[in-house]
Amino acid sequence: MGIDVTTSQLEKYTPHLKIGPNGYSFAINPNGYAVFHPNLKRSQGRYMKDPPNIDLLELEVEGDRPGLLELRNQMIEGDRGIITMNETLFLSPDKQYVSHASANYAFTSITNTTFRLGLSVPLSHRQYPEFSKTLPDFKNYTNHSSKSAFLIAPWDYLGEKTIDFALNNTLGSLIEILHSGSITTADLSADDIQMLQHLAWDVGIAVGFELYFALVQENLTSAESKIRDIADIKTKTVNLHHADGLRVNFMATNGGLTVICPASEAALMEDNLDVRNASYYTRAVYALDDYILMADRSLGLVSNDSYITVVAARSVTLDKPNNYTAAVVGAMLDGRVIKDFMVNSSENSSISRVNNLLTCGDVDDIYCYLVDDGGFVVSSNQEEHLSKDQLGKFLGEVDPQLWNFFYNNSVYRSVTQYDFQSVCKVLQKETSAGHRSFFVPTLNVLYEVLSVNWWTSKISWAYMNFNIYQWLFGSSDAYADTDSDGDEEKDCSKATHQYYFQPGMSNFTDSISCLNCTREIRMVMIQPKTNLMFVVTGKPCEGCPEMNKVVLHGPQAIDDEEEKSIICNLSMHPRKRVLSYGCYDHDPNEDDTKCGAGAIPRSGLLILATSFATAVAVWLLSQDLR
User: Fold this and answer.
1) Among 111, 173, 357, 401, which residue has the least CB neighbours within 10 Å?
2) Domains plus CATH for the chain?
3) In b/e form, how buried is each residue of 587-614, taking b as 16+ CB within 10 angstroms?
4) H or E stretch including 412?
5) CB-hemisphere CA count at 13 Å for 601?
6) 251, 206 in Cβ contact below 8 A?
7) Where are the beta strands (DSSP E) in 19-166?
8) What SS3 state is found at 341?
9) Sign of the CA dihedral 296, 413, 532, 19?
10) With helix as H, strand as E and coil as C, how does 350-382 read?
11) In this protein, which residues make up the domain named Voltage-dependent calcium channel alpha-2/delta subunit conserved region (predicted)?
């Protein structure tokens, strides 16, 4: 139906630099099904060849909100307009978190097609920079230090000619190409030149931050030197750990530039250079003045690391009246540094010292956690929680009892998204490890095959049918699905839950009672400047299977009864559909003379004639034998 070309072209023309890193485009057909959407499943980073029938309401978080239903209906009708949605939820690129924000939704129909196009732009993104229409000289790049790595997003900065060059995601290689004269203004579109100009502007900002990074590193080195003169061995050890714990300073921009200091740690950011698809970046932009801390398992993890780094990030907004969020700055910290800070803070508290209370240093009796707004563990005083296999995991897996208490007491709220076109692996039944018995043909069997009676048996038709159709049709590999990995799978439905703090949640003290065990809980919200809560509690109570039920994060298969109930509820609120009024499956340049040649080399007429002749031959033969 030409869907591949259409989706790629529509996405290509999305004005990313104008709508910002959290803005996005989407398209639907007259049935309300998404043609493309950032939350739609992709195959190997690309849009699917045949997008499944997933409704727009199922792709947007809180799809039942009235504003979204109105948007969908107006788009189906082919209207044009703008709808504002206040304090709604948006999904992070890694689908682990949701963020609160307000946004404008602009929509229109696409001429001579049945598609409707939409744009979502956060209200906080009211302006964007405009630059000259000439190629930039990147003169600020000469001022940068070799101690920092300047990397760029995997975007088409050189338009359609990007594939002709090896950019290697480095700014230096891009500048070399521009200075070589291989690319001229005539080779690029106006949008391509704006991307390059934006990147050059970002370099000017980055050089200033690079000087700041250098001062931070210098201060840490100076602090380490002074610590070595201190006689107190314990203080010396702890503070040295703090000095060494800062692994990386980084800055990323809307234009796709990422600066890493020191340059030797650039590999830590290689998988997150596309800021539009980096969760730390989009979440920091939504958080505005707050710090986002997360033990992101996709960021800052190298194969030889024995731990996961904790990422702290904050957006940078230009001075008023622009209020333009231009970049995100951050740091990667050794997860153990966060743990030491948490333990030392509790031990040095005047209340704990005066009253001789247990602290986070008493790891045998006290469990301490830093948990983020999505329910993931950022730090813990328990050593087993700090490994790269544990840090950053969902609290429902690390401490199910504590998580169930929080959720049941409305510390967290959740949203659920359903995927009714998912696949699940089939559990194989156990079989014997021994060889199966096998059948050895005998002369008697060969005689039966050659005898006339064999041709009139039920097997004869199956055998002829198999061989005839093997001859008529192409080999089975001609029908192979390129997305299949050979695993045995079945259709199923899955549910995914994202969690967020209950709005207005404050500090509290409570307890969990189970059998003869009481587990005290003290929770403190570290707000409004961060996305964390600090939890101090006792050891988990043993027993109580319902309270200790593990809660997994991510897509989970739902049973048939739950699926039927959900579909039944959806059927109570029918969704608007409109019959297609046009067809876009024809192109004057299409050559249809070879249609079907890839998998079925014989014509349909030949197949029909052969099938009829075979059936007649078998019938006549059976009549003669009678």
Assistant:
1) 111
2) 7-122 (3.30.450.20), 149-219+241-333 (3.30.450), 356-420+493-557 (3.30.450)
3) eeeeeeeeeeeeeeeeeeeeeeeeeeee
4) strand 412-425
5) 9
6) yes
7) 24-28, 34-36, 42-43, 46-47, 81-91, 98-109, 116-122, 149-152
8) helix
9) positive
10) HHHHHHCCCCCCCCCCEEEEEEECCCEEEEECC
11) 228-596
What's the rounded Cα separation, in Å, for the pair 399 and 401? 6
* 8 A C-beta contact, residue 603 and residue 594: no
Which residues is 152 bridged to in the sheet? 257
Q: Write down the pLDDT at residue 581.
A: 55
Taking the C-alpha atoms of residue 137 and residue 129, their distance in angstroms, rounded to an integer, is 18
Strand 325-334 to 508-514 pairing: unpaired
Q: Which two tokens stand for residue 200?
A: 């050059």
Can you say whether the dihedral through the CA atoms of 286, 288, 290, 296 is positive or negative?
A: positive
Record the tokens describing residue 269, joined without a space. 């950011």
DSSP 309-323: EEEEEEEEEPPTTT-
Place of tokens 């404008």: 104
Residue tagged 């229409």 (tokens): 133
Please give the average pLDDT of every successive group of 10 residues along the chain, which has 626 residues.
54 86 93 88 54 82 84 94 93 92 94 89 90 88 83 92 84 92 90 94 88 70 46 35 70 95 89 93 93 78 64 87 86 86 76 62 91 95 84 93 95 89 68 38 35 39 41 42 56 89 89 91 87 94 88 89 82 74 58 54 61 64 56
Does residue 556 sit in helix, strand or coil?
A: strand
What pLDDT, on a 0 to 100 scale, did the predictor assign at position 126? Answer: 85
pLDDT number for residue 441: 37
* Residue whose entry in the numeric block shows the structure tokens 């087993």: 384
Task: With H, G, I as helix, E, B as strand and everything else as coil, classify residue 94.
Answer: coil
List beta partners, residue 500: 413
Which residues, other chains included, contact 354 with Cβ-Cβ below 8 Å and sequence gap of 6+? none
Return the pLDDT at 545.
86
The sign of the CA dihedral 485, 487, 493, 499 is negative
Distance CA 545, CA 554 (A): 22
Q: The tokens of 500 are what?
A: 């967020």
Listed in sequence order, the residues at least 6 apart from 234 whose beta carbon sits closer than 8 Å to its beta carbon are: none
Q: What is residue 164's predicted lDDT score, i.e. its pLDDT?
A: 79
Q: Which tokens in the block code for residue 242?
A: 């703090």
DSSP state of 456: T
SS3 62: coil
Longest dimension (CA), the chain: 110
Q: How many residues does the chain have?
A: 626
For the entire predicted model, the pTM comes to 0.78
